[in-house]
Input
Amino acid sequence: MKKIFVAIAIAAVLAVGAFAEDVTSGVDSLTGAAAAVGEVVDAKETLQGTWFDKKYNCNWCFQVNSGSNVFCVLRDATTNAVIYSFSRNNVKNYRAEATTSAFTLSWESEPKARLYRFSKSYTMDTDLDIDIYNNSYNERHKTKISYVSGEASVK
Output
């Protein structure tokens, strides 16, 4: 019965997505529909795209893993130099979660002494919610960062 409900929900979202101006919103809605009916997020799912963090003048570049463990590259927004690459090998407690309203990636980095959490809503809004807690200084950086390029979506 659950499978039939999931199929109907997915078909309805696809029909709505076919008429959407932005194909990405249809994909995001599909992911949201699957999450809403209790489907588990595929561990390979991740964010896709680049977002600008004006406080630190950097770009957070999330990518679909194509044979690499790297899932996020932090780059200087002016020079494009790599500041840090996050991979499943240098973080712990990596989690990809879907709720009825957003897709969230979170992880801990011992070398950086920080907890990271990024959330992308299933709406047309391309901003990304960022919440970074610095354990060393007991500081929190919590804001919205703006979409720059790529495909702002969940893959």
Q: What stands out?
A: The radius of gyration is 16 Å.
